[in-house]
């Protein structure tokens, strides 16, 4: 789960992290009121969407010369003008895709005189099973570009879970950022605050970009992106309340109601699989055969007929889907249960696209019999390779190049 920048800063501030004063605004009048609460003479008006690259983004309804989603204002009147221009408009950034995201919230903050910008993040390192600290002197830039062009400017260290964060981590981060004296001490204080926030909220990511040194010699978090481990949400009802459903895909929201792992993609072949590894393999073999998956959908190891029916309906609710591949290896998940869900869902939604099903494992013959006797135009496959070839051929036949 992701949250907005203003929510991330409010959360981090509870752990002592230094952030500029700021207020969220849902309307133009609220933006003006927020600006009046701040001392000025410089304000920052920031679009709040779940995507990076806001400053370099463009509003699709405005001309190409219009400012992006992060703007400086030198008066309350400028704050009002920017709010009027941004609210309700669609901001397109490198991370939103061409469709962009509608701006429904703004964040009005104090302007800051910046002397230097850095990048600092805490992430989960899947290879080591530890929390990784990533630091770079190249703050304010796309970290992916820095990693590609100048990887030597990125320093990564991990935290041993047996000892937790130690003072030497703070010294290492200060050294990586070229900080000394009082700024090094501030870095040594900031890192434990971020680490405690990471552990205390079951975060999966805390990204600070930029972490700024102000002209008066203070370290300040100017932008923050925080994401959380969905599996730990039950422990944090206060964080769950921060969820903004308008920022999420409607199909992903529907999938979450049934505890389905669903991610919409750009292709036209819908996938329903049990198990994340098998789902990845299924998407790979679709691409190997020259097509693209429309989604990642894992129904899990113990799905009920109702859950499978819901998954099938979610796939079919995507108008981009021109065919469906169901790939099930029955272990805990029985093939006959999957088959019953497929048949029930296909009948309810009046299936009009090709459907290829590959079943293997527990009760596989019963599952195949259910599909065969359903009277539906379901295409059986012998193995995964056969299934991928058949669904790609069906879709290509239905949708000429």
Automatic annotation (TrEMBL):
Substrate binds at residues 274, 331-333. InterPro entries: ATP-grasp, ATP-grasp_succ-CoA_synth-type, ATP_grasp_subdomain_1, Succ-CoA_synthase_bsu_CS, SUCC_ACL_C, Succ_CoA_ligase-like_bsu, Succinyl-CoA_synth-like. Mg(2+) binds at residues 209, 223. One of its GO terms (molecular function) is succinate-CoA ligase (ADP-forming) activity. It catalyses: GTP + succinate + CoA = succinyl-CoA + GDP + phosphate; succinate + ATP + CoA = succinyl-CoA + ADP + phosphate. Residues 9-254 form the ATP-grasp domain. Heterotetramer of two alpha and two beta subunits. ATP binds at residues 46, 53-55, 112, 117. Pathway: Carbohydrate metabolism; tricarboxylic acid cycle; succinate from succinyl-CoA (ligase route): step 1/1. Pfam families: ATP-grasp_2, Ligase_CoA. Keywords: ATP-binding, Ligase, Magnesium, Metal-binding, Nucleotide-binding, Tricarboxylic acid cycle. The keyword Membrane does not apply. This is Succinate--CoA ligase [ADP-forming] subunit beta. Belongs to the succinate/malate CoA ligase beta subunit family. Succinyl-CoA synthetase functions in the citric acid cycle (TCA), coupling the hydrolysis of succinyl-CoA to the synthesis of either ATP or GTP and thus represents the only step of substrate-level phosphorylation in the TCA. The beta subunit provides nucleotide specificity of the enzyme and binds the substrate succinate, while the binding sites for coenzyme A and phosphate are found in the alpha subunit. Its EC number is 6.2.1.5. It comes from Sphingomonas daechungensis. Its cofactor is Mg(2+). Binds 1 Mg(2+) ion per subunit.
């Amino acid at each position: 789960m992701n949250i907005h920048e203003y929510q991330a800063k409010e959360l981090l501030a509870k752990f002592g992290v230094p952030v500029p004063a700021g207020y969220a605004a849902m309307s133009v009048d609220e933006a003006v009121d927020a600006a009046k609460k701040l001392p000025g003479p410089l304000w920052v008006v920031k679009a709040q969407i779940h995507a990076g690259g806001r400053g370099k983004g463009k509003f699709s309804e405005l001309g190409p010369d219009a400012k992006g989603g992060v703007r400086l204002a030198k008066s309350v009147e400028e704050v009002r003008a920017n709010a009027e221009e941004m609210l309700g408009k669609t901001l397109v950034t490198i991370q939103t895709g061409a469709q962009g995201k509608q701006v429904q919230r703004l964040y009005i903050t104090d302007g800051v005189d910046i002397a230097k910008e850095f990048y600092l993040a805490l992430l989960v390192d899947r290879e080591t099973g530890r929390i990784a600290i990533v630091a770079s002197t190249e703050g304010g830039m796309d970290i992916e570009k820095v990693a590609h062009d100048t990887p030597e400017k990125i320093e990564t260290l991990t935290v041993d879970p047996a000892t937790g964060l130690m003072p030497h981590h703070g010294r290492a981060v200060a050294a990586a950022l070229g900080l000394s004296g009082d700024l090094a001490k501030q870095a040594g204080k900031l890192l434990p605050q971020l680490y405690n926030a990471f552990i205390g909220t079951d975060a999966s990511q805390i990204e600070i970009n930029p972490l700024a040194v102000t002209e008066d010699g203070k370290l300040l978090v100017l932008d923050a992106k925080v994401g959380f481990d969905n599996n730990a949400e039950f422990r944090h009802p206060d964080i769950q309340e921060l969820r903004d459903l308008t920022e999420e895909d409607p199909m992903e929201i529907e999938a979450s109601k049934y505890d389905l792992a669903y991610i919409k993609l750009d292709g036209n072949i819908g996938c329903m699989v049990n198990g994340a590894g098998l789902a990845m393999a299924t998407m790979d073999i679709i691409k190997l055969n020259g097509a693209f998956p429309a989604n990642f959908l894992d129904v899990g190891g113990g799905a009920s007929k109702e859950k499978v029916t819901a998954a099938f309906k979610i796939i079919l609710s995507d108008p981009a889907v021109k065919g469906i591949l169901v790939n099930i290896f029955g272990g805990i998940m029985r093939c006959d249960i999957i088959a019953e869900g497929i048949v029930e869902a296909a009948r309810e939604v009046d299936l009009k696209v090709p459907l290829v099903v590959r079943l293997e494992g527990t009760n596989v013959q019963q599952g195949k019999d259910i599909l065969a006797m359903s009277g539906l135009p379901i295409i059986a496959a012998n193995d995964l390779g056969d299934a991928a070839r058949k669904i790609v051929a069906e879709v290509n036949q239905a949708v000429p190049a």
